[in-house]
Each structure stands twice: as structure tokens, then as C-alpha cells.
Specification:
The protein is mostly helical and 766 residues long. Helices cover 58% and strands 6% of the residues.
Length: 766
């Protein structure tokens, strides 16, 4: 049964979409769940826009529970690439291979499995993975060759990185039409405008894209009642009106209405309660699997369960699905089965724990745990298990905690998933007899990840939860967080006292001193850092620890390139002795930098290739893009490919220090190529950043030199300001300052490298 009566809304949206004033158009439809956004969009696509190339990106309201930061973009990519199967548009793989050259192809091959986890269909059919930048390039190519009309559901839950990628796409395409379906909670109705404005600010639209917000209001009851099924045999329309009004105009209430529903009850809740055990079991399996499941997989799960909750044959599954579809509980679309509406998912989320739900949970967790052990790429299974364990506050999370940590470390914005882990830990602690060991393991994982990603508040809160002064590991993190959250002379003195309390020549003391050295190399002079590093190097017993290689690596930053290369080689040998190829790969990134500064650019490219090969996909993509671009620019190449790599690097960079470096490189690119308008904007962003909080002379000299170059090339008097600042730095007479200037230029291109240290868990056992 289908009923639509949105004449005015249809007219308004068609008018918005057909407006010729801008290249791209976005209309955001907002309303509470069930009021009719989806029905309206379906009507628009099947009637008014039937001649357009259109598609709908379906996103469940449960999507925020995923680990992945790129959920929405990956959904969009999947829908677009599905069209390629019908030869409507080029395939993603064909486009990527056609457009990549040289090291770009190498980078593509290396990172294709690193970012951008596909949805569960990947488990059942082969799918070639592409990195997020390759996916973005593919989408831009497709949108520039075809005019698309695209709707995206539940846009209110979109992740930060998907917004960034979508914003970048909109700046590079024309004639793209987007409909955002924004579902606001009933209690937020009065404040929805604030939420929408905040959302659009994140999207950062430019003048090429127009945007309008449109409210889908509650349908008049005289129209909504036409959705009541004829089989409901309703006679008391006033009772139905009350049910409709209590649901704030949720049309699903009308579709699921029956004659025997008690007064004031939700027809959605009542329809679910009336399901028999076989129906309820299947509905809960679909619900727990993100509200969607492949039909082949569902049959496989139900007919081959080792410990069946209910007995199913293939025929029984088919019959049950048909009944559920007739009751408007599920929808069957080709080979996929979905809960028919988010309102039903919301009601399922409210159900109390019961044997049927528990059985569905057990069936899915057993399947995904088995899949995790069998599949080479286990990320999809980890995603599913994480969401399931989160819903049920299950201590089994401990079995996949290491995998979750690895996945989080690949994210640009991990805050949402870290918050979910905090929530889970707190729920476990709220149990009558909490397992403190497991909750502490979660806290430690949170601490490790947030410290490594420089999320000080998350790390500090996690450390407070488990802090034990007798635990050396906790003491080390305590020092690291003091330095991370508030580095000043007072903090430095406090940290030095804490270091002095540790046993001399111990691994614990070495790690604390490395933390202090890392902070000094950003906030203090090169001379002070070098003196401190040399003092550490004089402790002979430190050389037995793997952390000694981190000391050599950081010290290599404080000397000239030829000496650096010798130190880096020693680092390689130490990491090799500990069988740490990933850390060796990080060193090759730095070795490539040294060879570049010495003018050995071909060797530098080979160093990058070594890093990629050793890392097995774990090198940060933003580093590869930036460093490859810098090598090309050092050779005098300022091509569109180089520009693209710098832009992609900036798009994937979250660290403020690294962002300044990439922006400097971009500013130089635009200045050299005489695109002064964009160079000016980058100059403004750099000057308004906190770059002068970093007192490391080498870094300051890089920024000052580049700002000087921009202002001199644009004949602006500000170049005198930076000439003076550079002179003041030179007067310090730092022996290593300013050795890496491109021949015949005064600007300074710079690389990204690994400077953080790894805190060993073994410290807690000392």
C-alpha cells in the first residue's frame, strides 16, 4: 500500500531543484521520524524526477555505533559503484587504474585495503577496495560526467570525515542535486534550526552550492487516515486521531493500525508484540544486524545454526518473510531485507531483554566471531561485533579490543567511537558484580589510543579511572599527559622531579625522558633539546631497550642530514632486532626526507617505497601524499598531480602541527604558480594558527621563510616583518638551522614524519 499527498511540498522542492542560480543544490528535509520524508522522496524520484539519474543512500539510525569514520561516504560510494555493474558509469577500479601514475599507483595498491570499510555485502562477494581518496576521486569523476539526484537518509548522524569529503566533492563538481533527510527527535523540535545551522557550518559550502532547509510538517489527519489498511476495520476515528496525534504525525502508526489495538497504545509497538516467535526471531536478527541483512545469509544462518533457538527450513524462512512484508515490518529489495522504517527500529531498541532477542544476539555473535577467524580482512566482522557488544554491554568486547584499537588508530576523528567505549565501560562498572579487570582493560585501551592520538582529555579521564601510583605504566602516562596538556616551565620542573623518582637507567625513566624530549623539541630551543638528548645518549644501559631507537630517531632531527642518516640506520637495526617492521617503515619515511634534502630525489622515492613495503599498509596516507608532493616540488615539478596530493594530505591531516606544514607547502605551490588569491587565504590561515607556540627554531624558520617568500612575491611590506624574524633566528647561531633550502629559492618545503613514541605495556610488569 502506498499513499502520497504532498502537493505543495512537491511543488516547492521541484522549484528549488530546478533553480539555475548555482551549480550544485542541497535541500535539507527535516521532521520527526515517520512524518513522511522518505515517502516524499520516493514520490519525487518516481514521478517528478523520473527522467533524472537518481539514487537513494539508505543509512540506518544505528549508524553512529560503527567504528568507521567514513560510513556515509562509503555508503554513497557503494550505491554509485553499483551503477557501474550495469555499465551506466565507469567502474571504480577501472577509473583508478586509468588515472594513477608512477608512485600514485604504488600508493593506491598499498592503501586500498587500509581505509573505507565496505558494508556487509563484502562478506559474500569479491569487492576491490579503494582508499578514501581514490573513492573521492571516483565520485568527483562520475558527478562531473553525469547529472545526479541523490538523497541521503539520517544525515543528522553523519560523521565528521564524511562531511569533509562531501564538502571537498561539492567544490569540485557541478550540477549535483542532493536531498538530505534530517530526522530530529521529538524533544528537539524547538531547537532544530540551531542543529541544522551547525550541521551546514560543518559542511562549509562555497558559492557554487546553494542550500535550503525545508520542514516536512505533520500531514493533516484527513489525509493520513487514508493510510489505514482496509483490513483494520476501524470504526472509532476519534480514537485513531488520538493515536495519530500522540505519535506527532508518525504515518507508520496509520500503516500498522489494527482494529484490536488498545487505546493510546502505539500501533508499532502493538504490531511487534503480536508477532509470533518465528517472526519475532527473524525481525530481531535483522534489527541487530544494523536493520538490514542479505537474504542468502539470513537463510544460511537460520537453517545451519548449530544450537537453533527455533527450527527453520528454507521454505519456512520464505513464508515468514512474506508475512512480515505483508505486515509492513520488513521490506525486501532485490536480495536485501530491511526493517521497513526507522520508527520500527526505534521501537525495537526500546524492547526489554528477552529470550528471542538473546537468541538472535547469540546467533549473530557466533557467526561474526567465526567470520573474524576465517576472513583475511576481518574489519567488517569486528565492526559488527563491536555494535552487538555495545548494545548488550557484553564483556566479550575484551576479545576484540586489540582489533578495535588498531581500527581506531586509522581514524582521523576517533572521538565518537572512544565515547562509545567509555559508555560501554561505565555500563560494565554499573553491573551488580562488575568485572574490574575487564573495565580496566577497556580504560587502558582508551588511554593508549587517546594518548597516541593526542586527545588529552580522553586520555586523562581514562588514566584517572585506573590510576595506581605503584604501577610504572600509569606513572609514565601521568608524565606524558602532564606534558601534553599543559607544557610550561612549572610543568617541566614537576616532570623532572617525577623522573628523578624513577630508578636510574630503567626503561620507565627512559620512556619519561623521551616524553620530555618530545615536548622540548616543540616548545623549546634546539640547543636545549640537543643538550638533553645528548645527556640521555650518555646513559649506556639505555641501549638495551627498544625505546633507545626512538631516542636516536629524535636526536637525528637535531643534527645535519649525513649524521642523521647514520643514526636512522642504527634505528633500523634496533627495530629489526625486535621484529618491528612497522617501526622500520616509519624510519624510512625520515630517511627519504634526508635524501631529499641532500638532493638525492630518486633515492628518496625508493625510500618511500621501502616504507610502504615494510609497513604492510600501516603508513599514514597523509604523510605519503605530502612527502611525495614535496619530492616532486624539490625537483621543480609543480603539476596538478602534485597539487592534488597536497590537497588530499591536508584533507586527511588532523594534527595542528602537521596541518601548518602542509598548508605551508600548499602556499608555496600556489605562490610559485602565481595563484595568489588562494595563496593569500592559506597565508591568512597560517598566520592565524598557533604556530608561534612551537618554539622549535627549525619549525619556526620553515614557517617564517615561507611567509616571507609569499609576501615578497606579492610585493607586500609584511615580508620585512618575517625577514626580521628570520634574522633573529639566524643570530641565535644554531648550527643546524636552515640547511634545507631549495637551490635558488628562499622558501622551505617540509616533510611529515613520525615523532611520537610507543609506550610499552611491559612497563606495568616491572
Amino acid at each position: 500500500m502506498t499513499f502520497y499527498n504532498r502537493i505543495q511540498e512537491t511543488k516547492d522542492i521541484v522549484e528549488i531543484m530546478e533553480d539555475k542560480k548555482s551549480w550544485n543544490k542541497i535541500v535539507l528535509l527535516h521532521s520527526p521520524s515517520g512524518v513522511g520524508k522518505t515517502g516524499l522522496v520516493q514520490k519525487l524520484f518516481s514521478e517528478e524526477f523520473k527522467d533524472h539519474l537518481s539514487l537513494r543512500v539508505k543509512v540506518s539510525r544505528s549508524s553512529p555505533d560503527t567504528i568507521e569514520n567514513l560510513y556515509y561516504i562509503n555508503r554513497l560510494y557503494k550505491e554509485i559503484s553499483e551503477l557501474a555493474k550495469n555499465e551506466i558509469i565507469p567502474t571504480p577500479e577501472g577509473h583508478a587504474l586509468k588515472n594513477l601514475k608512477g608512485i600514485a599507483l604504488f600508493i593506491y595498491n598499498f592503501i586500498r585495503n587500509k581505509v573505507g570499510i565496505e558494508n556487509e555485502n563484502k562478506l559474500y562477494e569479491f569487492s576491490e577496495d579503494l582508499s578514501i581518496t581514490r573513492k573521492k576521486d571516483y565520485l568527483i569523476h562520475v558527478f562531473n560526467t553525469q547529472t545526479f539526484l541523490i538523497s541521503i537518509e539520517n544525515i543528522q548522524n553523519i560523521d565528521t570525515q564524511s562531511i569533509e569529503i562531501l564538502s571537498d566533492i561539492l567544490k569540485k563538481v557541478s550540477n549535483l542535486r542532493l536531498i538530505f533527510e534530517y530526522t530530529n527527535e521529538i524533544e528537539d523540535l524547538e531547537d532544530v534550526s540551531t542543529s541544522v545551522v551547525r550541521f551546514m557550518e560543518q559542511l562549509d559550502l562555497d558559492k557554487t552550492t546553494s542550500f535550503e532547509c525545508y520542514e516536512i510538517k505533520k500531514m493533516d489527519f484527513s489525509e493520513a487516515k487514508k493510510l489505514i489498511p482496509p483490513t483494520a476495520l476501524i470504526s472509532d476515528l476519534e480514537k485513531v486521531r488520538e493515536i495519530y496525534d500522540n505519535g506527532h504525525g508518525n504515518l507508520q502508526r496509520m500503516k500498522l493500525l489494527t482494529s484490536d489495538i488498545p487505546s493510546r497504545n502505539s500501533p508499532i509497538q502493538y504490531s511487534l508484540e503480536k508477532l509470533n516467535s518465528s517472526e519475532r526471531y527473524i525481525v530481531n536478527i535483522i534489527y541487530l544486524n544494523e536493520g538490514s541483512i542479505d537474504s542468502t545469509l539470513l537463510v544460511q544462518l537460520l537453517t545451519s545454526d548449530q544450537y537453533p533457538f527455533l527450527l527453520y527450513t528454507h521454505q519456512k524462512v520464505t513464508e515468514t518473510l512474506k508475512k512480515l512484508e505483508e505486515k509492513y515490518i520488513i521490506s525486501l529489495i532485490t536480495n536485501n531485507i530491511e526493517i521497513s522504517h526507522d520508527s520500527i527500529i526505534l521501537e525495537l531498541e526500546r524492547q526489554s531483554h528477552n529470550p528471542t532477542l538473546a537468541a538472535a544476539y547469540r546467533l549473530l555473535t557466533n557467526y561474526y566471531n567465526k567470520l573474524r577467524d576465517e576472513m583475511p580482512d576481518k574489519n567488517v566482522a569486528i565492526e559488527k561485533l563491536f555494535m552487538l557488544y555495545l548494545k548488550f554491554h557484553d564483556e566479550s568486547i575484551i576479545g576484540i579490543l586489540n582489533d578495535i584499537k588498531k581500527m581506531i588508530l586509522e581514524q582521523k576523528y576517533p572521538q565518537r567511537i572512544l565515547s562509545k567505549l567509555v559508555y560501554l565501560r561505565d555500563k560494565l562498572l554499573d553491573k551488580k558484580n562488575p568485572n574490574i579487570k575487564i573495565s580496566n582493560e577497556i580504560s587502558l585501551a582508551l588511554l593508549e589510543v587517546s594518548y597516541q592520538m593526542e586527545l588529552g582529555q580522553f586520555a586523562e579521564d581514562s588514566l584517572k579511572t585506573i590510576y595506581n601510583p605503584a604501577n610504572p605504566l600509569h606513572r609514565v602516562y601521568n608524565v606524558g599527559l602532564k606534558l601534553m596538556n599543559n607544557y610550561d616551565s612549572e610543568t617541566k620542573l614537576e616532570v623532572q622531579k617525577l623522573i628523578e623518582n624513577e630508578a636510574s637507567e630503567s626503561q620507565c625513566r627512559l620512556t619519561m625522558e623521551l616524553m620530555l624530549l618530545s615536548s622540548m623539541m616543540e616548545a623549546e630551543s634546539l640547543h636545549d633539546s640537543k643538550v638533553f638528548a645528548q645527556k640521555m645518549l650518555s646513559v649506556e644501559s639505555y641501549s638495551r631497550y627498544m625505546e633507545f631507537a626512538f631516542l636516536l630517531r629524535n636526536y637525528a632531527e637535531l643534527v645535519d642530514s649525513k649524521e642523521s642518516l647514520n643514526l636512522y640506520q642504527k634505528c633500523i637495526e634496533i627495530f629489526e632486532s625486535f621484529n618491528r617492521k612497522d617501526l622500520q617503515a616509519q624510519i624510512y619515511i625520515s630517511i627519504a626526507m634526508c635524501h631529499s634534502y641532500l638532493g638525492e630525489l630518486d633515492t628518496a622515492k625508493k625510500d618511500l617505497e621501502k616504507a610502504v613495503k615494510l609497513s604492510e599498509g600501516q603508513i599514514k596516507e597523509n604523510m605519503l601524499f605530502n612527502n611525495y608532493a614535496v619530492i616532486e616540488m624539490l625537483s621543480g615539478t609543480f603539476s596538478e598531480t602534485v597539487l592534488k596530493y597536497l590537497k588530499d594530505s591536508l584533507l586527511l591531516t588532523s594534527n595542528s602541527y602537521e596541518k601548518i606544514i602542509v598548508k605551508c607547502n600548499l602556499m608555496i605551490f600556489y605562490t610559485v604558480t602565481e595563484d595568489y588569491a588562494i595563496a593569500q587565504e592559506l597565508c591568512r590561515e597560517i598566520e592565524e594558527s598557533d604556530f608561534e607556540n612551537y618554539k622549535y627554531e627549525e619549525f619556526l624558520h620553515i614557517v617564517y621563510s615561507n611567509l616571507f617568500f609569499y609576501y615578497r612575491e606579492t610585493n607586500h611590506s609584511h615580508h620585512l616583518i618575517y625577514f626580521k624574524k628570520i634574522s633573529e633566528l639566524q643570530n641565535v647561531k644554531i648550527e643546524n638551522l636552515n640547511p634545507y633550502i631549495t637551490p635558488n629559492t628562499v622558501y622551505r618545503l617540509d616533510f611529515l614524519g613520525y615523532w611520537n613514541i610507543e609506550v610499552s605495556r611491559n612497563l606495568q610488569h616491572l
